[in-house]
Amino acid sequence: MQNKPITFQFISEPSDVNYGGNVHGGSVMKWIDQAGYACATTWSGNYSVTVYVGGIRFYDPIKIGEVVKVDAQVIYTGTSSMHIAINVFSRNLKQPNFEKKTHCIIVFVAVDENGKKLPVPKWIPETEEEKQQEIYAKRLMELRTQIEDEMKPFL
Ligand SMILES: CC(=O)SCCNC(=O)CCNC(=O)[C@H](O)C(C)(C)COP(=O)(O)OP(=O)(O)OC[C@H]1O[C@@H](n2cnc3c(N)ncnc32)[C@H](O)[C@@H]1OP(=O)(O)O
User: Fold this and answer.
1) Which helix (H) or strand (E) covers residue 91, if one does?
2) Measured distance CA(110)–CA(80) in Å, rounded
3) What ipTM does this complex have?
4) Confidence of residue 1 (pLDDT cuts 50, 70, 90)
5) Ligand 1 within 6 A of 118 CB?
6) How many angstroms separate the alpha carbon of residue 109 from the centre of ligand 1?
7) For the segment 53-108, what is each residue's pLDDT rounded down to a tens digit?
8) Looking at ligand 1, which residue's alpha carbon is closest to its atom 44?
């Protein structure tokens, strides 16, 4: 099965502004969820919901009126889960090159019409880069288990 990245491109709008005049982190998180949703639903062929998003790092501000590019690609699949790498870039309209502004991993689960999880097609990495990405996703899963154990007393 083909595992093509899903890419969104658009211009950040005045309605995306935060209190400091740049793009609001909440807008970036919405774009991450939308691109992840499109990628997961395309991969699974079923409606998919977010189960986890974490480790979002905002490297640099995105300015209003810049071109924003959001790339989403499946890097690991479990039984019902799809681990998707998201990279967000932006560029001034007058500049040709994009700069990376945000990266995270978002996990989706395919569900049926009753909200019950469904199996997803298996992604089998082939290239060295794809294999490294799968190792990265699995490593993050282990770290997440440790973080969730730390959080349990406070939930
Ligand atoms: C598009 C949107 O905005 S959706 C809005 C926000 N999201 C939602 O409302 C989803 C709410 N959550 C749910 O409905 C439920 O958690 C479900 C239906 C998705 C899954 O429920 P359950 O069947 O109890 O989940 P279960 O614990 O078996 O986990 C399902 C999968 O999620 C994975 N998962 C669960 N927690 C995590 C986590 N913290 N990080 C990564 N993956 C996780 C599991 O490993 C499992 O993957 P696998 O099947 O590939 O092994």
Assistant:
1) strand 81-91
2) 6
3) 0.93
4) confident
5) no
6) 6
7) 988 989 999 999 999 999 999 999 999 999 999 999 999 999 999 999 999 999 99
8) 81
Per the confidence metrics, is the pTM higher than 0.80?
yes
Amino acid sitting at position 43: W
Pocket lining: 17 vs ligand 1, CB cutoff 6 Å: no
- Residue type at 121? P
Residue pair 73/8 in contact by the 8 Å Cβ criterion: no
Q: Contact 32/53 with Cβ under 8 angstroms? A: yes
- In whole angstroms, how large is the CA radius of gyration of the chain? 16
Alpha-carbon span 83 to 54, nearest angstrom = 12
> Does residue 50 line the site of ligand 1, with CB under 6 A?
yes
Residue nearest to atom 25 of ligand 1 (CA): 117
CA 32 to chain centre: 5
From the alpha carbon of 80, which atom of ligand 1 is closest?
49
| Domains of the chain, start order | 6-154 (3.10.129.10)
21 φ/ψ sector (left φ>0, alpha ψ -120 to 50, else beta): left
pLDDT digits (tens, 9 = 90+) for 39-57: 999 999 999 999 999 889 8
DSSP-assigned letters across all residues of 10-25: EE--GGGB-TTSBB-H
